[in-house]
Amino acid sequence: MTERLKGRVAIITGGGSGQGLAAARLFTAEGAKAIIAEWREDTGLEAENELRSIGRNVTFIKTDVSSEKDVQAMVAKTVELYGTIDILFNNAGIGYSYNAQYKMADIVDTPLDDWNRIIAINLNGMFLCSKYVLPVMRAKKSGNIINNSSMNALVGESGADAYTAAKGGIVSLTRVMAKDNARYGIRVNCTCPGGVITPMIAEALETNPGLREHLEAGIPLGKLARAEDVANAALFFASDESSHLTGTILPVDGGWYAI
Ligand SMILES: NC(=O)c1ccc[n+]([C@@H]2O[C@H](COP(=O)([O-])OP(=O)(O)OC[C@H]3O[C@@H](n4cnc5c(N)ncnc54)[C@H](O)[C@@H]3O)[C@@H](O)[C@H]2O)c1
């Protein structure tokens, strides 16, 4: 590895699984100190143990990103432990594999409570983390935020309207955050993954035979993404290699958006 994030302090929300875990592995391999802000204690601790066992500097802080109290406490703890925050990977989200818990449907079939909960986690969570991290970054006039949205924000995908609205909000929020925070030396960019093989869609793939083939047939590169594909894009935004990029909305979709 090339130590592209040497000494930097990175908060990774939803770092216990999937793309967040891939980012925690990659960012710390590149020299970052990582906070895994995750609401699941089992996967959060597992990720912390895995990375500490190979000498990485990582701390799990149990956090529900939709809780203002949790987010405030997580940010304060990060500053107490590491003195600063350089990178925020706003990644935590719920989606297709939570269908039993929060109904993913079109507007007519979406209960208001489910709509509110999906927005609270997927959109408000990014608002809250940014709200409490930005003052730390503004005070030192540098920082880097990467918001993980979805191709649902850019292409109409039927049957997940609350999720789609949240992800669309993230794209718009990225643009205004980039504009407003450039003067503080803070860059804000956005990844928009297409289908990524993580626990989020694993259940949907398992319970719908033929779905994976159907999805992959629509992707020019012919395959769903790996979590590492998105983590690599996030690393690029987090590193100095993208120093002139802010407000960028990057599809990580195997060319799906191109056709
Ligand atoms: N997998 C896909 O196909 C896909 C496609 C596009 C976008 N995304 C987005 O990528 C992001 C990461 O998803 P993933 O694919 O790695 O799925 P995942 O389910 O493996 O990981 C999501 C993580 O976020 C955590 N999380 C959920 N709600 C939380 C909360 N309130 N507070 C803290 N942590 C919470 C989960 O516990 C989990 O560890 C999500 O925002 C998702 O919407 C996923």
Low-pLDDT runs of 5+ residues are: none
Helix content: 40-55%
* Order of neighbouring strands in the sheet with most strands: 3-2-1-4-5-6-9
Q: How many domains is the backbone divided into? A: 1
Named CATH topology: Rossmann fold
CATH architecture type? 3-Layer(aba) Sandwich
Question: Could you say which small molecules are bound to this protein?
Answer: nicotinamide-adenine-dinucleotide
Compute the number of strand runs: 9
Summing up helix and strand content along with how strands pair, one would put the structural category as alpha/beta
Overall 3D form: globular
Strand content: 15-25%
Number of helices: 8
Write the layout of secondary structure elements.
Layout: E1 9-13, H1 18-29, E2 33-38, H2 41-53, E3 58-62, H3 68-82, E4 87-90, H4 112-140, E5 143-148, H5 161-181, E6 186-193, E7 196-197, H6 199-207, H7 211-217, E8 225-226, H8 227-238, E9 249-252
Parallel strand pairs: 1-2, 1-4, 2-3, 4-5, 5-6, 6-9, 7-8
Helix pairs in contact: 1-8, 3-4, 4-5
The chain binds nicotinamide-adenine-dinucleotide.
The site of nicotinamide-adenine-dinucleotide has 32 residues, from helix 1, helix 4 and helix 6.
